[in-house]
Amino acid sequence: MxxxxxxxxxxxxxxxxxxxxxxxLDDVSFDLESGEVxxxxxxxxxxxxxxxxxxxxxYTPDGGELFINDEKITQFDPVSMKNKGVGIIYQEFNxxxxxxxxxxIFIDHMPKKGLLLNKKEMHRxxxxxxxxxxxxxxxHVLAGEIPVAQQQMVEVAKALTNDIKILIMDEPTAALSGxxxxxxFEIIRSLKKRGIGIIYISHRMQExxxxxxxxxxxxxxxxxxxxxxxxxxxDQIVRLMVGRKLGDLYQRSEHTVGKPALKVEHLTxxxxxxxxVSMKVRSGEIVGLAGxxxxxxxxxxxxxFHIDPYDSGKVxxxxxxxxxxxxxxxxxxxxxxxxPEDRKQQGLSLILSVSQNIVMASLKKISTGGWLQxxxxxxxxxxxxxxxxxxxxxxxxxxxxxxxxxxxxVVLAKWLCTEADIIIFDExxxxxxxxxxxxxxxxxxxxxxxxxxxxxxxxxxPEIIGMSDRIYVMRDRKIVxxxxxxxxxxxxxxxxxxxxxxxxxxxxxx
Amino acid sequence: xxxxxxxxxKIPLITWFIIVLIVVFSFRSDQYLTYRNxxxxxxxxxxxxxxxxxxxxxxxxxxxxxxxxxxxTVSGIxxxxxxxxxxxIPIVFLVGGxxxxxxxxxxxxxxxxxxxPPFITTLGSQGxxxxxxxxLTNNEGIVIYDESFLILGANIGGMIPMAFVCCFILYIIxxxxxxxxxxxxxxxxxxxxxxxxxxxxxxxxFWKFFIYAFAGMMTGLAAVILTSRLEVAxxxxxxxxxxxxxxxxxxxxxxxNIGKGDVKGTILGAALLTIIRSGMxxxxxxxxxxxxxxxxxxxxxxxxxxxxxxxxxxx
Lengths: 510, 315
What we know:
The complex is a heterodimer. By secondary structure, chain A is of the alpha/beta class. Chain A is built from 18 helices and 24 strands. Residues about 500-510 of chain A have low confidence and may be disordered. By secondary structure, chain B is mainly alpha-helical. Chain B has a single domain, classed as Orthogonal Bundle (ABC transporter involved in vitamin B12 uptake, BtuC). Chain B has helices at about 1-10, 15-30, 35-60, 70-85, 90-115, 120-135, 145-150, 160-180, 180-200, 205-230, 240-250, 265-280, 285-315; strands spanning about 140-145, 155, 160, 230-235. In chain B, the strands form 2 sheets. A two-stranded antiparallel ribbon of chain B has the order 1-4. A two-stranded antiparallel sheet of chain B has the order 2-3. The longest helix of chain B is centred in the last third of the chain and has 28 residues, at about 285-315. The chains are: A alpha/beta, B mainly alpha. The interface of A and B includes residues 332, 345 and 370 of A.
């Protein structure tokens, strides 16, 4: 593999950025060479995003210098940075759902013929681009209708139309499954060969040795270290990130497994595609639900929680069969909680305060006959803020102003507040930093110790293996395997999760 | 020193506007800063305060109600009919409130249970409610002769306008509902993230429905007071009220885009609007011009308010 290297594309020297009351960046230096993937790591709030926003022209630094292709940058705005060849793919997708793929790719410079759009040309160019990326997507399909992984690729294609030299990717794999990640990495490798430099932000340790060349670690707005990926171990990275030793991430204490708390029998739902699914969770037990994205794990749990309807089958909570027509409210009253995967869309209300969010699912508990008891609310909220170590200036702070990890803790608090006995976690640690992850894990462990029954959906294998007493593997909307014991490996889970996945891929082509 | 600064910072900007306007107007006319004029302002502004607060609730919940003006009209007419039929005052309030509740329930039904957009639903129902008002009155105002009912529009001992007292009680009730009841929390929860609220076990459909019905009810109660003050129930009385109510809500800091707002701010919006309207007479703006000028001033003020809250959102 021949790679064009060593030309310095970006050189950021001693960058400082001050927000009212916070030094978001404190004397940070960072550089990027052509044809390399430079991984940028740090806990949430370490300053990664701020640094990248300076590079993308969204922020003007208060101190330091920035050179792109040896040219000193004096004007910081998104358009001129784009013209210098900086492309950025944000964590949240910025595609327009009701425009087709080609229109999205050329959103800011659609080819024209006179005054009118040259659609033919646009689709031709777009499919050429996608073909270069080894992507088979019909450019006439609406962007909102293609899978998340393909949307990500369309984002990449969109960035490429601007003749970029520098591509910033902010957690590009957060929403992707294994196969899709491989696909994305393939594309990243081909971009490298073209001499494009890539800045890669990720929380996923296991990706670093696979895709990264160099790694820079930040902490609390400061530069900590830059290393060749080959010369640094995961342990070292974590230690540099948190500035302390974490110890073993996944720790389970002694716990006793009791009676079945939640049983699902022969659950079938045409709408969600679920077929004859049976499973159970006992009190004191953590059960992992593994599988690829789209295997039906979230759909299963949504049906169990009665968010979505199902056609037949039984849901049994603590020995009592739940009516098929029951509502979410009924489930909560029976002591079941579901902590949804999508924090911002479903888990919390960003514009409401920490306090309002925490009590949202248990307003009944803090009120008598429709009247809120503010004192009780304050007590409960303060208890959970302390218990979960949520760092917020006050309970009245808007959830939006918290870091991802703290937002997730607010979601946890909201559901703990309902004092449920059965708690379903959907991707509980997605997009939060290692420190917060560890806190979430020890929290789950505590809950199990107290005798709660826990279901955890997760796409992170180490997490599933490290935390679960038993694991169900789902594929094609069915449970295909139940695994238990200490010798479960990632390979075992994957082999069950993957079988048949290839067939699905072939169906897509038709 | 910094404490004072902080305190000043906490006072909404719109308060300064109001003060500046009062100063300007009182320089133009020595009649302005009199107790009599204050009574007039309080009378004029009080009904608007209630309707604007109802609009605020709907907006916080992420919705919109363009039919509040016509609900005000219909409720005014049914309550006038009740008065004419010799029904005692407390029951008249019930009639007005129920009329408003039913109108709001129609909106709520279509918006929450049929999934129609609030904009088109309430724009359409506005026509229906006006139509009912016209049918009920045969396009003629119902003049009130019942002296005991007209007390509501009079001044207590010539000092405090009864209309203001009644409306202010309604306003306080709404503040309490917003801040101290579960229903109040639901309004925010639905506006902030309806799906998240549903997944938290809230019966979002019912509550969304109820928000419109509640806003209708409060408007219906305000209509009773308005009818007493005007001594007539006119089928066109509610014209343009919906805009002014929404304008007051936004001026008071409630956001149209996200479920953010506070009915406590709405009183400032209502005050500003009432002061501008009365001030136009003070500075002798011809009546033909007043509507256009009021609209312009309100839109400019809203632009200002929206930009301000955007800035705050970023900081």
